[in-house]
Amino acid sequence: MADQPTEQQQERIVTKRRGWSIGKIIAAIILILALGLLVSYGISWATSDIGRQKLADFKYAITTKYNPLYWYGEQLKRGQEIGRVWETETNRTTEKVGVKLQDFKAIGSRILPSGATLAFRYKFDVGEGVNELKIRPKCKVTAKDKDGKEVDDTIKSKEVTPSAPEISTDDPLSYSNIICQIETNELKKERTVVAEGTVSFTQQRQRNSLRVYFTKDTVNIGDKFFETYGIKEKLPIKSTYSNEPVELGLGVSDENIQPVVIEKKYFPSVGISLLNKWDGRAKIKEINLYLPKEVRIDESKSPTSTLCPFRKPVSSGANYIKYEAEKSYLEKLEEFGKGAEETLITFQRFFCWLKIDESILGGAEYMQDQYSVDVSYDYEFQPESETVTLKGIKKGGETEEQEEQEEEPATSETKHYLCYNPETEGYSCITKCTRTCPDCELFEYASKEACEEDIE
Amino acid sequence: MKKIIIILIALLLTGCVPKLPELPWLPGKTTTGKADFIGGTKSIEAEIIKPAEGGKVYANQPFNVIIRVSNEGESEAEGTTCISGLNKKYFPGFSGCECQDFKLEGKRRTEGERLEGEEEQLKFDIGTIKTEELKEFTVTAKTRYDYKTYGIIKACVKKDAYSKEGCKILGKNMITSASSAPLGIVEVTEDIRTEGETAEMTLNIKLKEVGKGNLYDLDKSMDQCGTPKDLKRKINVRLINAPGSSDCGHAELDKEGEATAQCIVENVEVFDESYETEITIELKYAYETIDSNKFEVV
């Protein structure tokens, strides 16, 4: 009995519990209201022009640049390249190479009245050693209505100036003022204009060579050969990369071990790799391989295919023979790129078995010659886009919304809403809430008459 | 007595002093008879001085290759330098292999004066370079020459090889001096067997290749750019001033660059007392060195 609380004590406990519960409930209500307010603000911002654009930018950023999966994919691609491409020597002093389409931004406001002239600037990041690169800037423009449907009533004309600029590292003026200018039509309705800047160019006959040593010496192979003959070569011997969009690698075998031994038990070969180094995608158009006249592709081991796309020699100079890649096989090859989501590969690789005539040695113990290759390809940078909102223009003092209502005559079933216009400090009856009257639905009327009555 | 003195003075005045017999020339010996080689591992140094390693040469201008050949060792050398490696597509005036001979005295001492080895520059005119895509080339010079290594040893001759009395039959310390050459005498061991008043001395000579090149075949032509596969790395061994009749034959270098030669000296006079005798070992062989320079055509 001594443990049982008295009646007074019980009452105090109940009161205390009740008091605590009420406080908590009030705090929860305040929190919910605050959250609701925040959500409301968030929705308002997200549906506004600026909000929509910011969200679009953010979405692009997290799906590409800052996406860990995307980063992992890139690293995976790089891992796949190792051992599959032939490395090159480079004389570059900086990591910043090539050209990148960094941005494609609207000049000025991104919310403009319809009929305005829009201008978008191509912003490039130009690395070392770019010299008179002839680019083709293009801009693709699509206009959408409020519901996101594509419409073709907005764009009057578009033009890129200059149309065929030549970019050089040492001349920032050559790439700092490339603009896509778009003339728009005057419209009563709002439009969203998405402009996508694309830049492409054609790389013609990018050439690279590999110094090749030939010998019949089967005793001194690899490093030992160079040691024996006192030849100061940095091994493995590599071709040189000069910061072009595609790194053109050449090799004499998978491990690229030189010299090439001309003996029955050795099987000479040539390998070509194209590794995309800039921020875009490449599509091969043409490849030519030049071999010393004593060296031929072994057609029995390497018939024309996507692995060895070269057909019979097309021309034979005094010292070198030219092999041309069959276009039909090149067409089968995918684009290869860097940073493109849909692109799976970053390189292309070719490999052919060779037959070498001993006469290349000219009676000497070793001879030095070269394998060369030239490649032509189309290159396109990662496109960049920008969104601009074109507001419907006012006509005769009426807002776009009022005009919209005129266009859609009210029926007996149409509901009307009361709208307060802060500019005129007057009220009007509308059939659809607009940005100027976002909360008009609070004052709903079954007919226009009822609404107008209320104004009076 | 006076007469004798007068005759002697007269003889002196007329210069008719009886001459002492001349000593035969022995390698490494000074005029006082002291063994004195400079020593080392150097012999013929053949270096491409033009085009220089990593250097530039100009297209459409006369191009030549210059090899400086100098004798840094202590033997006379006779040899050939051949150049190869230049591609005829780019060097149309080059035959593929071109050779030139040389003959050079080595370092030596004459009457207390030390003379440097001789040197020569071999010039190969190649003609003009055809400019095409390939810009970097390598030229290789192979220099082959006959060369000799001399070593002086002190051998002990005694009736009883195991006797503690008199001189001692030593191991490698027998070598007192050796000449500068690419093939070194590492160790000489002596064994002696007495038969009556004469003895048979056996010298076991260990040799090692110490130069920067490779032993070449004495019987193969030096006038070629390639190195034949069936090279016999033979060394002819001879004793110059042995105390009896000697026979050494030849030795052949193994894959590790080592060889052992054996010389047998017969009819060596022995006495009751032991004595030391200086013997000069001569090794004769052919040697090959290679030098290559990479250069750029501009």
Q: How many strands, which pairing sense, and closed or not: the largest β-sheet of chain B?
A: 9 strands, mixed
Number of helices of chain A: 7
First-last Cα distance of chain A? 76 Å
Strand content of chain B: over 45%
Report on the biggest sheet of chain A: 11 strands, mixed
Describe the protein's architecture and organization.
With 456 residues, chain A is α+β, with helices and mostly antiparallel strands. Helices cover 21% and strands 37% of the residues of chain A. Chain A is built from seven helices and 26 strands. The N and C termini of chain A lie far apart (76 Å). By secondary structure, chain B is mainly beta. In chain B, strand 11 (183-195) and strand 12 (198-209) form a beta hairpin. Chain B is elongated and about 80 Å long. Chain B starts with a helix and ends with a strand. The model of chain B is unreliable at 11-24 (pLDDT under 50). The A-B interface holds A 207, 209, 211, 219, 228-233, 292, 318-319, 362-370, 372 and B 53-54, 84-85, 87-89, 96-97, 132-134, 136-138, 140, 225-227, 229, 290-294.
